[in-house]
Amino acid sequence: MNKNIIVMKFGGTSVGTIEKIKNVADRAIKSKSEGNNVVITVSAMGDTTDELIELASKISKNPPRREMDMLLSTGEQVSAALLAIAITEKGGRAVSLNGYQVGISTDDVFSDAKILTVKKDRIVSEFEKGNIVIVAGFQGITDANDITTLGRGGSDTTAVAVAAALNAKYCEIFTDVDGVFTTDPNVVSDAMKIKILSYDEMLELASSGAKVLHLRAVEFAKNHGVVIHVRSSFNNNEGTWIMDTENLNEKMEKAVVAGVSYDTNQVKISVFGIPDKPGIAAKLFEELAKAHINIDMIVQNVGEKGIAAISFTIKNEDLNTGRKVMEELKHKLEIKNIEIDTEIAKVSIVGAGMKSHPGVAAAMFSALGDKGINIEMISTSPIIISCVIRKERVKEAVKLLHNAFGLDKQKL
Ligand code: ASP
Ligand code: MG
Question: Is the pLDDT of residue 252 over 70?
Answer without folding.
Answer: no
